[in-house]
Amino acid sequence: MQAVEAKGPGVHVLAPWTGSKDERGAFFESLRTDELERVVGHPFEVRQINYSVSRRNTLRGIHSVTSPPGQAKYVSCVRGAFRDFVVDLRVGSPTFGQYDSNVLDAESGRAVYVPEGVGHGFLTLTDDACICYVLSSTYVPGTQIDIDPLDPDLALPWGFTEPPLMSDKDRDAPSLAATLASGVLAPCAA
Q1: So which residues are the catalytic ones?
Q2: Which stretch of 1-5, 10-14, 97-101, 125-129 has the lowest confidence by average pLDDT?
Q3: What are the pLDDT digits (tens) for 30-47?
Q4: More confident of the two residues 65 and 8
Q5: What is the 3-state secondary structure (H, E, C) of the chain?
Q6: What domains can you pick out in the chain, each with its CATH number?
Q7: What's the pTM?
């Protein structure tokens, strides 16, 4: 596993180890927790795995989880492609409110590690795109943080050319400033 630290402390873009490629296709290791833990410097215990299947031009996010319980994510694309965004939501972080973006696709196998306190969202670039989330905590109702993915203060360059498909929850989510004022965002761990 090769890793590059992205913008925002603790955010990593990871490339899998490719074991073999031949006329039948390819084999690669998507996730080895021992390698991931070496990269991020702390344990990553898998508690839940989710899949999201979306039509082209679907916008989901920006989502995070309150702390406690907190939630780290290992995000990869198992079919199709999507433009992935992470936004630092950790109060007091030197990169608070800043984002990093990568295109993740099934062919490359690249993934993004999203630490606790960092928001995540994506725009699908293909029909039937399937995103896999490996999570460090289980779903707990009432702990979700939703931030407007079209917040003009964030100015995320989604790159869509027509209005994206969005849930009402994401469309009606508050701005980063309103979320900060509500007091639900966690401080940056020292």
Answers
A1: 63, 133
A2: 1-5
A3: 899 999 999 999 999 999
A4: 65
A5: CEEEECCCCCCEEEECEEEEEECCEEEEECCCHHHHHHHHCCCCCCCEEEEEEECCCEEEEEEEECCCCCCCEEEEEEECEEEEEEEECCECCCCCCCEEEEEEECCCCCEEEECCCEEEEEEECCCCEEEEEEECCCCCCCCEEECCCCCCCCCCCCCCCCCCECCHHHHCCCCHHHHHHHCCCCECCC
A6: 45-182 (2.60.120.10)
A7: 0.93
